[in-house]
Amino acid sequence: MQINLSPIRRDMSLQLTRSGDALTINGEVFDFSPLSEGATLPAEAIASDWFAGPVERVGGELHLTLALPHGTDAPRQTLFPTSLSLTGDGPVSLPPYERETEHDD
Fold it and tell me: Quick one: what percent of the chain has pLDDT higher than 70?
């Protein structure tokens, strides 16, 4: 599965888990296993604001773009994210929502 990330300022974080051709986004499951080779599902056809582009199956692999929320002080890796190439199931590591700050104790 290939996931492009589109940064967007949003006050809600993103939790993502993959299971085969299904993605669980903040607890909601989106199963793309019925999408046939060469088919495209427009983002408008998916009942979610998290999809920032179509979902396509190319060479047996799903390709999609998700909105990547970030805070007001997001680090460079969040504002300019690299694509994710997922080969296994489980939780997906995403760039941080905001820059980590050091605390004076």
Answer: 95
70 CB neighbour count, 10 Å cutoff? 22
- Residue 102 in any domain: the answer is no
- Picking from 12, 71, 64, 68, the residue whose alpha carbon sits closest to that of residue 43 is 64
Do the domain assignments include residue 21?
A: yes
- Residue pLDDT, tens place only, 28-62: 999 999 999 999 999 999 999 999 999 999 999 99
Cα end-to-end span (Å), the chain: 43
Domain annotation covers residue 18:
yes
- Confidence check: pLDDT of 105 > 70: no
pLDDT band at 102 (very low <50, low <70, confident <90, very high): low
Query: Residue 31's closest CA among 8, 83, 41?
Result: 41
- Tokens at 38, concatenated: 């060469």
Amino acid at 19: S
Q: What's the domain range around 81? A: 2-88
